[in-house]
Amino acid sequence: MNFKKFVKCAALTVALGAFAFQAVDAAPKYPRKQVQIVVPYAPGGASDTVARIYGKELEKQLGKPVVIINRTGASGAVGLESVKNSKPDGYTMSYMPVESTMISALGLSTISSDDFTFVCRIMTIPAAITVKKDAPWNTLDEFLKYAKENPGKVTIGNSGPGSIWNVAAASLAKAAGVEFTHVPFDGAAPAVAALLGGNITAVAVSPSEVKSNVDSGNFKVLAVIGDKRSSVVPDVKTTKEIGLDVTAMGWGGFAVPKGTPADVVKILNDASAEVAQSPALKKLLADRGFEYAYLNGKDMDEFAKAQLAQYKELIPQLIKK
User: Fold this and answer.
1) Distance CA 113, CA 115 (A)
2) Among 308, 254, 258, which Cα is nearest to 84's?
């Protein structure tokens, strides 16, 4: 090979190498593999349901599989801890319930929403007091009268100590001047199953989580602990309508561990904004009686900080440690 041909071949090799490098460099850096979303509660509840439809829609936006993993325990702390301690690369996300702003105030864990960077909030949900259809009370007033006359005899199931539904029941008891015995479960679904089996007196969970049993005639909802009536049980009065100034609102969003690269967070923020507009997600929220309440990651971070401060002050007043 003469010198000129050698130079041409060498130049061509360099050019091809540079092109290949640029092609690799231009390839999407995130995501390159499956993304997992940890739900810190049992399958079947509101958190799990919303996470699954979000994951399904997120998969369409990212172009990679998105899988849901249920990791229960300690009112959500076990699942949240696993995500906090995971590699902050965007491949492990967490469903973030309102409890993420409450657990530290309860002393169950040092973890809090401050350990995460939010990519969105999707919805809010009220609490409701539900009993079996054959229970002797048809109104909240009757229920609370019995509770006042029988301190501690009323057993109320919820998603565990410090969960929003536990705080809802405790807030109601404080406002009404009664004493409940709180029975913890790893999620709303097991609590509902316990009520159905006659093992507890009532549940404090969302209207959506008791909807099927209300429709089948097994349960009746005595009151909604919220600012407005639920579309799931529109004929049921709120506690404020009944004369008790108490509200308790759950919410659900998604986040990644603090320290996740900003460019990855932006991709998930943008993808979540598209997911939030999807007809499938909005239909699910409407069907389940959840309130559509999208916030972007930045706004949700600020909202969570305010909630964290609120519950740090409120929870010690309501929950006996």
Assistant:
1) 5
2) 258
In the chain, the N- to C-terminal Cα span, in Å, equals: 85
The pTM for the full model equals: 0.75
Residue by residue, pLDDT tens for the chain (321 residues) are 554 554 455 454 544 454 444 433 444 689 999 999 999 999 988 899 999 999 999 999 999 999 999 999 887 899 999 999 999 999 999 999 998 999 899 888 899 999 999 999 999 888 999 999 999 999 999 999 999 999 999 999 988 777 788 889 999 999 999 999 999 998 889 999 999 999 999 999 989 889 999 999 999 999 999 878 888 899 999 999 999 988 888 899 999 999 999 999 999 999 999 999 999 999 999 888 888 989 999 999 999 999 999 889 888 887 654
Type of residue at 78: V
Classify domain 35-124+251-318 at the CATH superfamily level: Bordetella uptake gene, domain 1 (3.40.190.150)
* Domain 126-242 falls under CATH 3.40.50.720: no
Asked if the domains at 35-124+251-318 and 126-242 fall in one CATH topology, the answer is: yes
Q: Which amino acid is present at 139? A: T
